[in-house]
Amino acid sequence: MKNVLITGGAGFIGANFVHYLHKVEPQTRLINLDALTYAGSTENLKSMADSSRHIFLKGDICDIKQVSQIMREYSIDTIIHFAAESHVDRSIIGPAPFIQTNVVGTFTLLEAAKQAWGQERSGKLFHHVSTDEVYGSLSPEEPAFQETTAYDPRSPYSASKASSDHLVRAYFHTYDLPVTITNCSNNYGPYQFPEKLIPLIILNALQGKPLPVYGDGKQIRDWLYVEDHCEAIHLVLHKGKLGETYNVGGGNQPYNIDLVNKICSLLDELKPATDKYSLLITHVTDRLGHDRRYAMDTKKIGTELGWQPKHDLDSGLKKTVEWYLANMDWAAKISKDRDFQAWIDKNYFKRGEN
Ligand code: NAD
Ligand code: TYD
Question: Which domain holds residue 241?
Answer without folding.
Answer: 3-187+226-249+290-311
